[in-house]
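Complex record, two chains
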Amino acid sequence: MNSDRWTTIELLYNAALQLVAGDREAFIEQQCRGDESLKSEVLSLLASADCQDSFMEESAMPLALAILRSEVTSLVGKTVGRYKIVGVLGHGGMGEVYLAHDSSLNRKVALKLLPLSITDNRQRVLRFQREARAASAISHPNVAHIYEIGEAQGLHYITMEYVKGATLRELLKTDTLDQARILKIVKQVCNALVAAHKAGVIHRDIKPENIVVTEDCHVKVLDFGLAKLIEEARDDSETDTSSSLLTRPELLMGTSQYMSPEQVRRQTVDYRTDLWSLGVVLFELLLRRRPFTGEGTTDVIVAILEHEPDRCEIGELLSGEMTSVLLKSLSKDPEARYQSAEDLLHDLGQIDATHSARTTASAAHVNEQSGARNGITTERPRLFSVNDRVDSIPDQTSSTFRKLSLIVPVFLIVATAFYYAFKTRSTTTLLNSAVNLRFERLHLSGDIAEIVISPDGKYVAYSVSEAGKHSVHVRELATASDLRVTPISDSNYSGLSFSPDGTFIYYLENRAETGALYRVSKLGGGQRLILENVNTAATFSPEGSRLAFIRSNNAVDPADLVIASADGSWSSVLGQRSLADSRFFSSDMQGPGPAWSPNGKSIACVTHGTGPKLTEVSIEVIDVESGTVRLLEAGPWHDVWRMTWLGDGSGLVVAATETASGSGQLYLVGDQTKGLRQITNDPNNYTLVSGSTDSRVFVTRNVERTSSIWRLSLTESLNTINVEQKKGLAEVETGTDDRLIYSVSDAQHINLWLQKAGETRQLTFEADNSKPAMSPDGRYIVFCSSRAGGMNIWRMNSDGTQPLQLTTGTYGDLPSVSADSKWIVYRTGRDIRKVSIDGGPPVVLLSREVQGPSLSPDSKLLAFFVNDHPDSQVWQLEIYDLTSHSTVQRFALPDSTSPFNGMVATPDNRLRWTPDGKALSYVSSAGGASNVWSQPLNGGPFRKLTDFKEAEITSFAWANSGRELVLVRDTRAYVPLLVRLF
Amino acid sequence: MANSETVTQLLLAWSDGDATALDRLLPYVEAELRRLASYQMKRETIEHTLQTTALVNELYLKLVDQRQAKWQNRAHFFAVAAQLMRRILVDYARRRLRDKRGAGVVNLNLDEAVVISHEKSGDILSLNEALERLAKIDPLKATIVELRYFGGLSVEETAEVLKISGVTVMRHWGLAKSWLRREVRG
């Protein structure tokens, strides 16, 4: 809408609202001066304004919060490992804590889920597990026992003894605690620390939240050893750039007021840090305020490091012994503090609780204003560096990286030198030079979903799927040795790529709609999460510092071309396309990702047309600096599976399909309007391509389809009578005299074949010919053909001679021949028509859009699939009487046996009447496997006629008067191939 | 520490017109919001309206350094929350409808208890789409709707974020609502 018009509408609307309701219409009528559309626009808005409903009256915010809340409680009722989650206990910097039931030991446990953002670093998780195992070895009545450190469904968790009681924090809020009780509690904490420190475990996070007191005043200290993990995560992320901090807010939330000076300084800590923290807890319990506070985190840190507790105030309130215990615990210098928990325990034991208080601390003394009054002395703490047992675990990551940092520059120099040598040597570009290919089959085990080659051409990385389990492997080509580099997972891996220096493999772990980009060394080891919400394989700038990918959170949302640093620490959007643009980025997780050009200046992207051009796929080249777009002249394609740049940047090698019926072939596509060169033209179907930096060796994959015709006897409990393997089989039809007609698809075309008494002959030889149906008198074969443009109904003699075009529209499909062999019923995009078998004008029988129409054996009824709500997947089977022009019967198809099984309906899915006309049969993948199902017309239950567990039935037909079923079954195998260019 | 400074700075940058600051701010706010929401759930408070304002206030106090922020920043913060709420609702509604269509995507993260019905999900999505169309015709009105409807901002708060008068907000809000009602309800 243009803005002037909108302004006019707004003016009129507001002016009319000033008038009494009765005058508005006349006013608008007069103002619009005959502009009817303006008038109706404004009047409809006014009518809407008069509506007294609750539309948008209440903010939707509470609803959003309810959703958030429901997501938080989500795990309740679910099972993690052997634990059933029964409730939520709380939350903390370390993730949610749930009450769970351990089914094998029949006991309640507290289950703590560690946030993914903390556990994304494998090394860190391993170190943490080591720590937590040490903690689990502590057996002491005052230590909440750690039962298990586990991992299930990708979630890391810890289960702990479930203690029923109140935390000290809760007690501080509600109870008044006398000093005897305070001493009793603190001594028990001290006992817990003695045991832990003996076992070599530092708590690091002693605070009232981690101390639970049961009703009979028994103390349990929680979370031994866990604080280390969050500290490490925080330290890791702070050494990164600031943007990674933003993605991990949970790491930043706690600078605790209980932290020791050495902890705040991030120095090495030892047991004495726990004694400081316990001192702070004791202070708070006694004086009902914290010793080191401030308005913001910075103030708290300053207080911990610089300010001394107010001795005068403490001295006024507490006994001399207690004062000295407190002050000694809160010495900035660890050397001046208690040197062990036993020492503190000893001094606490000396205090006589009944005489320790000069006055009783109560709420009246609570002073929240400031914890940092003028100290009497302000010592500057010395630098402290005691070698800590637990902290001194050698850091394997850093040593590995030291080694890598030596290797990488050398590799880069070599690679660069090689690149330039190669570039200067070639006089013509790779794109224009003669190409000879040599294929070599790679023998890898398992179902190979994806495969890519390393930049030096010496390794391949590939993803394997086997029995629903997925993993990524690396093979060194020279030695044929394989290494699995990812865990075996229930979710798919896709989007494989090598970093330009060849040391890392990047891959996507597929989530619901997007993936998480991980990287792993080609030598295996820890996986590192780089970025979330990544839809395609990452491609790298030549020097390897940046990567690019497509991000789209939802198929209808705009898709972004995102550039990020190779470690994921920052990212920015280079281009965005939505359905409103003429082309949008392909964001299919199994599809092609962008490809960064060898000179680093541009990125090639695969785009889909929008609207009616949805099936047109193009390749665009986008300038990295300016974002300007150039469309490659070659194309549009039907599909672009993968692409990889030629090493000299003169063009791309593309695995693509030119037409809907074509198979994937390899092409060279010029960046500079050099057009298109097809470099393979064979019956194979190449759906992947990845190349080495020097473009000497590529890897691709052939989808090897094996199809076969099966003949089953229904009378002899599904005995298989005959199986015949034939390449490219698509459909099958049976005819009189036990004839079989079937269609075969090669790389270019679909053609019809006839098989009779063991003899086969090809019936058609041009364009695409499909959907065969034989006339009951055996004279003709009726079929669809594209040989005269569009798709029309044709007829030929049963030996393939004398083809005759019967319709001349743009689309005619699924012909059935009447019982008297005189006319043909078929569908167009909009309706059902009939035409004489000798041609002539067609007659519309039914003006409805239906799927899979099929004429009954007596030609009186037409059966088809209908869908009353185009967006829904609820399908019904309808039987329509062609003489009375009315619907006779409708069957609701149970969801599970929907013929389209949640997929978009395909017009190929054909209904077949049983030859006796008593039932309708069709193929469904209900239950996961493709089988033939049948619905009796008398209303009996749906029945599964076949019982296959695998492979796909692409077509079926009845034979031998309904005693036999003929099927086309289709299996796929993925065969990886090395392609050498010479 | 870094947290309060960073959120504050991002918020200031955004209210000064740096649109990119919002993208960086959102994940931060969302994480904290989720944390608070779970905590609040534990407290089992039921009064939605009170709760909402209180929650965002709590969030604001927690994330933003009060000494650096001007009082107007609170309103800006609510605007951030508004965008977040819209996204949460739309994402949820989409998931819900997809589950209904039986596309085979089972969302394990959602409580089985129905928070929003399928019908309501459809309403949210059509409102969201209509709002996107409105944004093309009249971006200011669309923003006002986002702040008020999704963000729960009052007229005054909306006026402050957009630096326009309350009367203007009301005028735009009225037409926006009429237009959206017509688009959504037909």
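Note: The CA atoms of residues 397 and 403 of chain A lie 10 Å apart.
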